[in-house]
Amino acid sequence: MTHPTRRLSAGRLTTMLGSPDPDRPAYAWLADGVRGLVANGRVLHGTALPSERDLVGAIGLSRTTVSRAYSELRDRGYATARVGAGTVVQVPGGPAAGGGEPLPLGGFGPAEGATAVDLTCAAPAAPLGLAAVYEEAMDQLPAYIGGMGYFPLGLPVLRQAIARTYERRGLATDPSQIVVTAGALAGVAAVARAVLAPGARALAESPSYPNSVISLRHHGVRVAPVPIGAEGTDLDAVSGALRSVAPAAMLCLPDFHNPTGTLLGNAGRERWARELDRHGAVGIVDETSAALWLDAEPDVVPMAAFSDRIVTIGSASKSHWGGLRLGWIRAPRPLAAGLARVRMSLDLGAPVLEQLVLARLLETGAGLSAETRGGLRGNRDWLLAELGARLPGWEARRPEGGLSLWWNLPAPRSTALADEAARGGVLLAPGSTFAVGDHGLERWIRTPYALGRESLEAAVPVIARAWDRVHGKAPRTGGPGTP
């Protein structure tokens, strides 16, 4: 077994634990404090705790107390003893493999036990303190256990919390306009059933988030592409497509578009909404990435502020945690009742506990923390510089938010690059995955930066070597960061 690469100092652990609880045995307070830090993701699996002697000097407890606390952690599966490393933190049973976001790549990410770096997924890890919020939600759960547990449109407390988030963003919203779903894709499916007949036409920018397009097509909707450039939505092209295709709806991603990362300003949102109204098309606005700003919170309002024909899809998957499996629909009043009926034809509601957790997260304003945004910002800038230095022919704009870089390649070899990188242990989604027309975009590839820096550092040289192979060059033996 390898030694850990991280070690927690006694001073840092003492600061993280805070003041001892005088009403509890000191060993129990110390053990439970460390356990809570592990459960909340603040101390990572494989981190070496300070030696007993160092912690005694920093925290002011006896050696016997610290020894008993460490023993308690080992007995409960939260630590193990390693020769040469001392007491090392572990998640009981080890971190669960998988959990990445599936894309239509012919599978569901790496197989169990695989060691590949998965860059097909663009989603952050759970926020710090999530386990504690679950514990708070458990205290609220008894109030709901006396009933049958069915809340097809969502818990009232969660619908109210979601409505308040729109109010804070400048869009008047009543809780009756909110329908809670099992994620954004469930919201897209419900909206498609409510406003689109099988065989209806819809527009979507290309590239676009592929799972949403697939969801529309599974309902029998004929989806036509509108090209989006590296600089953002081409509103002239949108206007022309609305006029020529006469669609019933259009899928819109104005907020840190996935995969391009572009953000549309208020003037553009207003024009887009007016074009939709002029041509009688419903706007299906996906706001999954709206809260993923990295440099500064953008001064924009939801696109639905400019039209009463826009249905907004939201999700907690990227702003909070994908494991919550919760999303929502914000419906204009004329469509709210119809969407509610359709929602109940799909399933009978999301889990109560997770809804209580999300309500609490929204009420406290907990989402991406300053620390998480800083980490994502650092990863974005590092990956942009590192791949740019290794592969000078690659070009990508620096997005102000979102979770990935959208690279323009010197040659149309995106699929070949993804195949070659996979042989080296790095999974990539080629540009064609995001093409609404199911082909093309071979000059583009997406590289998410939400993984830990260690994973990105392992991936970059593999990507560089893979590109050299598919682009007909000899593999590199030097360059920044090359092992």
TrEMBL record:
Question: Which InterPro entries does this entry report, sorted A to Z?
Answer: Aminotransferase_I/II_large, HTH_trans_reg/aminotransferase, PyrdxlP-dep_Trfase, PyrdxlP-dep_Trfase_major, Tscrpt_reg_HTH_GntR, WH-like_DNA-bd_sf, WH_DNA-bd_sf
Top-rank taxon: Bacteria
Q: Which UniProt keywords apply?
A: Aminotransferase, DNA-binding, Pyridoxal phosphate, Transcription, Transcription regulation, Transferase
Instruction: Output the PROSITE patterns linked to this UniProt entry.
Output: HTH_GNTR
Tell me, what is one Gene Ontology molecular-function annotation carried by this entry? transaminase activity
| Domain HTH gntR-type residue range list | 24-92
CDD domains membership: AAT_like, WHTH_GntR
Its family remark reads: In the C-terminal section; belongs to the class-I pyridoxal-phosphate-dependent aminotransferase family.
This protein is called: PLP-dependent aminotransferase family protein
* Organism expressing this protein natively: Arthrobacter halodurans
Output the lineage of the source organism: Bacteria, Bacillati, Actinomycetota, Actinomycetes, Micrococcales
